[in-house]
Amino acid sequence: MTVKIQSVHFDADKKLVEFIQERIDKLTHFYDGIITSDVTLRVDKSSDADNKVAEIKVHVAGNDLFVKKQCKSFEEAIDMSIEALKIQVKKHKEKIQGI
Known about the structure:
- The chain is of the alpha+beta class.
- The protein has helices at about 15-25, 75-95, and strands spanning about 1-5, 35-45, 50-60, 65-70.
- The protein is elongated.
């Protein structure tokens, strides 16, 4: 699966990119029909501590699954996004299989 990572107005370090790649690859355990994933990371201009935003769009046959989370760190935002995507991927798989 191809994962495209875009960081807005900053450069994501290698460790963060590897972390994202590892987490997204785990989604294939739930559904192997995932074609590509687009990850966008950005920092909001708010005074709030929860200013790290992660958006993930997963392209599957016939649909796109999307989730956006805002947290204190990018790792936390990615983890929460992946948890939400697991649910969406499982529902999509059940829908495709007609369960």
